[in-house]
Amino acid sequence: MMPLGSAPAALILFGPPGSGKGTQAKLLRECLSVPHISTGDMLREHIHAGDALGKEVQGLMQAGQLVPDDLVNRLVAERIDRPDCARGFILDGYPRTLQQASVLEKMLQERKLDQVVVHLEVDYNVIIARLTGRRQCPVCGTLYSLTSRPPKAPGVCDLDGAKLVVRDDDRESVIRQRLEAYERQTRPLLDHFAASGHRFYQVDASHDSPQQILHKICRFLKNGA
Ligand code: AMP
Questions:
Q1: pTM for this structure?
Q2: Whose CA is nearest to atom 23 of ligand 1?
Q3: Strands (E), 76-223
């Protein structure tokens, strides 16, 4: 296992929708042996379960808007208190607002966890092509891309044969809303991270393969460069 640093740490994967946060989080989970926490996945599970929280967030998510800060902060606080997070964890899609970033900062201080931020930088046109070509297995969650990682048989998951689906919010009009929310509410966090004094790494994630990007991130985590 590769350590996240000398002390347990939260690895924040930061970037716009379609920058490959989910893909990198899944790869990093294997080599770091720490849990992958995706607030988007957690929210989708609530929608799938049809519970009160799911009903509260469904409309906002389908419109490509962020859900309330307090709600995601609570979900994350509960999740990181589980024993499997004691040695660190990977955050994918959180924090997304300055309010979330400052709540997270406090949560990590209280739990004596460091924070490391990796920013996946991607060209706008690459993002659009990726998001419109993204397909997911509704059973095992595996992600496919019609351009860079198509399934062996069209429309079917390689692992379990389930029919692949397009996420509700990967439709073109919603994609525009999500990118707009990113620009307005989330991108400003970059200045906050850069000024925070925590370890911060920018990686060009437009053209390299997921394995090449993983390699760069692992090198940074190991050597800090
Ligand atoms: P993602 O899977 O990370 O792209 O998230 C999908 C959607 O879930 C977003 O467009 C938001 O509606 C919601 N969401 C996920 N994470 C957050 C967050 N940290 N803050 C607010 N909304 C979120």
A1: 0.89
A2: 66
A3: 88-92, 114-121, 134-136, 143-145, 199-204
Helix (H, G, I), strand (E, B) or coil at 81: coil
| 86: CATH | 3.40.50.300
Protein residue whose Cα sits closest to atom 2 of ligand 1: 40
- Short-list 192, 7, 5, CA closest to 102: 192
Which residues of the chain are modeled with pLDDT < 50?
A: 1
Please tell me which residue in 21, 26, 130, 135 is annotated as part of the active site: 21
C-beta 16 within 6 A of ligand 1: no
3-state class of 88 per DSSP?
strand
Q: Is residue 55 annotated as part of the catalytic site, yes or no?
A: no
Q: How many domains does the chain have?
A: 1
Q: In what order do the strands lie in the sheet with 36-38?
A: 36-38, 88-92, 9-14, 114-121, 199-204
> Does residue 175 have its Cβ closer than 6 Å to ligand 1?
no
* Residue 189: domain span: 9-123+177-223
Q: For residue range 126-173, list pLDDT tens digits in order.
A: 898 888 899 999 999 898 999 888 999 999 999 999 999 998 888 888
Length of the chain measured in residues: 225
Q: Is 178 a catalytic residue?
A: yes
